[in-house]
Amino acid sequence: MSITTEQVEHVAKLARLRLSEEEKALFAGQLSKILEYVEQLKAIGTEGVDHTASGLDQPGLLREDEVRPSLGAEAATANAPEAEGGTFLVPKVIQER
Fold it and tell me: Which residues contact 4 (CB under 8 A, 6 or more apart)?
């Protein structure tokens, strides 16, 4: 499967990205290669193969959940530049339109 520069332009527009003509050509080639590889993977027979969540065949690697002592809010914010009531105070970053 081949990706065209027009398709790259469409995706770039959706993502609100500005791409140069060189970048569009580069990304079209790279995305086409990725899709070709996916097609190769689709050709591999996977019937009868169990789904896996991990490539490791070692059950029980995760520890059991247990309650442990942790820092309190006051201790966690003790070295913060600004804190109040156990919470971090940070500058407002949302701008009005």
Answer: 28
Residue position matching structure tokens 């791409």? 19
List all residues 6 or more positions away from 24 whose beta carbon is below 8 Å from its beta carbon. 5, 8, 9, 12
The single residue listed with the structure tokens 């527009």 is 13
pTM of the predicted structure, to 2 decimals: 0.49
Domain at 5-42: CATH code:
1.10.20.60
3-state DSSP helix/strand/coil % of the chain, to nearest 5? 35, 5, 60
More confident residue, 60 or 96: 96
The string of DSSP letters for 21-33 reads HHHHHHHHHHHHH
Q: Which amino acid, one-letter code, is at 65?
A: D
User: What's the whole-number mean pLDDT along residues 52-56?
Assistant: 68
